[in-house]
């Protein structure tokens, strides 16, 4: 580890071509939604990020060393200055000096910063209590432009969250149906609302699965066979 960091600077992007863009991927994994405040127009969630990039300056021979990966302190290697753009708390970089990063022999770096996200959310209460809200957690790099650091956002957590929401509405609909009379000339507005939300959740689940399939599909190799025909004419 000491030899790898001897000429290493954590202030320089870890790519040999400093004119190029460093490609990164980010996954957001939510562990809980703690609060959605209508009066304060904010949302509080807890979770962690899975950030992956390639450090071209941290490479070693795994065959000679017998080591496939090592752990480095966050303060010792380069990490992107990721911040929450629409955050309401103190503006600070994610992670900390006590965090460790997993670095593999081929330069792949895995970083898992945990955080409680307190973000602003513009809530529309026009149809309260039958309203649907959309709140965002906007993650950016503060110092680097998109030409220097380029993020790719995955939808893996969105898929799991969509399944959870769909099952929740299905359970609520089942509970409401058990409390309603079997024969009635009218239909409960709450039942209609839950059926509508269940359908929208199923549609969101379908769209998320299609997005994941398109994002992770392997490139198709097209083999083109050229057949040459030779024709000889004799007089």
Index terms:
alpha+beta, 7-stranded mixed β-sheet, 2 domains, Acetylcholine Binding Protein, Chain: A, 9 strands, 3 helices, 235 residues, 24% helix, two-stranded antiparallel ribbon
Look at the structure and give the mean pLDDT. Answer: 78
Low-confidence stretches: 220-235
Helix proportion: 10-25%
Helix count, DSSP H or I runs of 4 or more residues: 3
Largest sheet: 7 strands, mixed
The tally of beta strands, per DSSP, is: 9
How many structurally independent domains?
2
Classification by helices and strands: alpha+beta
Q: Which CATH architecture of the largest domain would you pick?
A: Distorted Sandwich
CATH superfamily of the largest domain: Neurotransmitter-gated ion-channel ligand-binding domain
Roughly what fraction of the amino acids lie in strands? 25-35%
> Compute the gyration radius: what is it?
26 Å
Structure overview:
This protein is 24% helix and 26% strand. With 235 residues, the protein is of the alpha+beta class.
In short:
The chain has 235 residues and is an alpha+beta fold. The chain has three helices and nine strands; from the N terminus they run E-E-H-E-E-E-E-E-E-E-H-H.
Write the layout of secondary structure elements.
Layout lengths: L21 E16 L4 E13 L7 H4 L3 E5 L8 E3 L15 E5 L3 E4 L2 E7 L18 E3 L7 E5 L2 H24 L9 H28 L19
Parallel strand pairs: 1-9
Antiparallel strand pairs: 1-2, 2-6, 2-7, 3-5, 4-8, 5-6
Helix pairs in contact: 2-3
């Amino acid at each position: 580890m000491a030899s790898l960091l001897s000429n290493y600077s954590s202030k320089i992007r870890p790519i040999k071509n400093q004119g190029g863009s460093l490609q990164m991927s980010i996954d957001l994994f939510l562990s809980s939604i703690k609060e959605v405040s209508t009066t304060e127009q904010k949302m509080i969630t807890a979770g962690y990020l899975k950030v992956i990039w390639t450090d071209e300056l941290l490479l070693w021979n795994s065959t000679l060393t017998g080591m496939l990966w090592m752990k480095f302190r966050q303060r010792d290697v380069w990490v992107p200055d990721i911040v929450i753009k629409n955050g309401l708390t103190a503006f600070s970089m994610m992670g900390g000096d006590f965090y460790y990063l997993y670095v593999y022999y081929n330069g792949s770096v895995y970083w898992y910063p945990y955080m409680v996200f307190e973000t602003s959310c513009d809530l529309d209460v026009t149809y309260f209590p039958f309203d649907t809200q959309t709140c965002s957690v906007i993650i950016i790099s503060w110092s680097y432009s998109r030409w220097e650091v380029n993020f790719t956002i995955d939808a893996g957590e969105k898929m799991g969250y969509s399944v959870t929401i769909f099952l929740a509405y299905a359970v609520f609909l089942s509970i409401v149906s058990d409390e309603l009379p079997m024969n009635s000339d009218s239909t409960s507005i709450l039942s209609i609302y839950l059926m509508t939300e269940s359908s929208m959740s199923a549609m969101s689940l379908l769209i998320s699965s299609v997005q994941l399939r398109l994002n992770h599909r392997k490139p198709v190799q097209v083999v083109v066979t050229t057949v040459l025909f030779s024709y000889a004419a004799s007089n």
